[in-house]
Structure formats: C-alpha cells, structure tokens
Specification:
Blueprint (H helix, E strand, L loop, with lengths): L4 E3 L2 E3 L1 H11 L4 H21 L3 E2 L5 E2 L1 E7 L6 E7 L2 H7 L5 E6 L8 E7 L9 H17 L12 H25 L6 H4 L3 H23 L7 H16 L6 H24 L10 H14 L1
Helix pairs in contact: 1-5, 4-5, 5-7, 5-8, 7-9, 8-9, 8-10
C-alpha cells in the first residue's frame, strides 16, 4: 500500500496527517476528567446493581467492566466485556468491538464506552489492538462532542447529515489506525494510498448500512434516490479538511456510483435481498447512471 500520494501539487504525508488528528482528538485535562468522573460513577453503580447492558436489537448481556490504557493516547478508557458472546455476536456481527453510549445519571451526559466480546479480553493478536485503538478514537470524538449517529432517517437532510458525520468520524479513525497498523490487503487494494483506503472503508460501510436499513424500513425508501444524487455534490463541502484533501474528495466523487453498486452486492452476501421493493430507487438510480455513462 502506498504510503504517500500527490495532492494538489504537494506531497501528502499520511503520518503527519495522522499525528495532527491524534493531537486534535486528545481531550483536554478537564474534558478527560469529566469523562473519568462519569465512568467511575457508572462502574460504581454497576458493581452495586450488576445491571445488564443492552445490545441494540440483540438483547442483553452481563458485562465485566475494565479500564484499559490506550497505546495512542496514553489515557485509560472504559471497556465493557460482554460475557454472553453469542448475544454480542448476534447484535454486532463482524465487529470485534464497537463504541456505544450508556446512561449514567439524569444530570450527567451519556457515557461513551467500548463494548467487545469477553472472548477478546486477553487477545493480543495484531488485529485486535488496532481495533481497540480505532474505538478509542471514537471515544475521544464523543468526549469532544461528536458521537457516531445512527444511519436511520425519515427525511433527506437527516440522512445526509448522518452519512457525512459517520464518514468523517470513521475516516479519521481508519487513517490513524492504518498509519500505525498497516493492514494486510488484497493486491487490488494494496495499490491505494493510505488515505484512499481509509475513506473507502469509511464510506462503503456507511452506504451498506443505509441500504440494509432501507430494506428493513429504518430508512425511508422515498429519499434514497435524491440522497444518492446529493452525496457527491455535497462531498467537497462536507468532507474536505486538512486530513481529507480536495483530490481525495474528487476521487470519492468519481467512484461513488461504482461503490453504491458494490454495496448492493455486499448486502446480498449478508442476506439482504437487493430486489426488495424498498431498494427499487437504488436500482433505478444505478440503471440511470449506467445508461448515462454509456
């Protein structure tokens, strides 16, 4: 995988970009102290009541709470180890760890925590520490005021806002992770620059979730076609930053329709029927784009 690429006539250094992000995402002492205060209250309450943790639509599980020090940020963050691995795996298929928010007290902000299966508690393999540090990035994003939103929406502005927020937050986490832990890739992906691969993983995962949720009724089908049209038009304004250069955004715009088509194939492999009536606007959009290109 190429470590650098030319951006706007200058050499883009992914390591410098990742270091800038790490500095920007490191909470101030007061913000971290507030987080730790809420975390300590949550741990104390859990020790008293042993309340189960809800796993989205996947039921509940008892958890073991533990603070773990981040290799990247040098601070300790709270992890909830799900003791029911089957329940965790059913709720979060394919995810080694996720970031969630839990209620602490009525007068306190929700607490961001990392949730992972208890089977990974002693996992020191190459992949798992990088997955945990990815989630620690999301914890710090939440501590700084921006949590990952749900990709469920009934109106177009909400869906656009949620999509671009998720892509930006995931891009930051993937870029930091991939600079530190070089992923093992197929030869086709190995030709991509680090920032391209980070953005690819961020936005393809988001569009796959949106399509899957449209099929389940969590995203209004009637807004999908306009959403697909507007994403590349709004991308430069919503994604451009010091870590996401204009040339990278243009690369994203150019491959958008191809990545949507690929997402339709991926959700089929995950058991979602691409011919579902709710996904007809997506099929029509892809057909129109293919005709236009021909």
């Amino acid at each position: 995988m190429r470590g650098q690429g030319t951006r706007e006539g200058t050499t883009f250094d992914p390591r410098r970009a990742a270091q800038r992000l790490l500095r920007a995402l490191r909470p101030s002492a007061p913000l971290y102290a507030d987080y730790r205060h809420r975390a300590d209250i949550y741990v104390a309450a859990h020790q008293e009541r042993r309340a189960a943790l809800r796993l989205g639509r996947g039921g509940e599980t008892s958890v073991l709470l533990q603070f773990r020090r981040s290799l990247l940020f040098g601070k300790s963050y709270l992890i909830a180890w799900a003791e029911d691995h089957a329940a965790y795996d059913a709720a979060m298929p394919g995810f080694d760890a996720i970031t969630s928010e839990v209620s602490v007290a009525r007068n306190l902000a929700p607490l961001p925590i990392v949730v992972a299966s208890i089977l990974h508690r002693r996992n020191r393999s190459r992949g798992f520490p990088s997955a945990m540090e990815h989630e620690f990035v999301h914890l710090n994003q939440a501590i700084l005021g921006t949590s990952i939103p749900s990709l469920e929406a009934e109106v177009l502005p909400d869906l656009l806002d949620a999509f671009f927020t998720v892509v930006r937050l995931e891009y930051e986490a993937y870029l930091i992770e991939m600079v530190r832990w070089r992923p093992r890739l197929e030869s086709q992906l190995d030709r991509l620059a680090v920032d391209q691969l980070a953005l690819l993983r961020a936005h393809t995962s988001a569009i796959e979730q949106i399509l899957s949720r449209a099929a389940s009724g969590s995203v209004t089908a009637g807004i999908l076609r306009e959403f697909l049209d507007l994403v590349p038009r709004r991308a430069m304004k919503r994604l451009k930053s010091t870590a996401c250069r204009p040339a990278l955004v243009r690369w994203f715009q150019e491959r958008w329709s191809g990545d949507v088509a690929a997402a339709m194939r991926v959700i089929r492999e995950k058991g979602v029927d691409p011919s579902h009536p709710s996904l007809r606007p997506v099929r029509d959009w892809l057909l129109a784009r293919a005709r236009r290109q021909n």
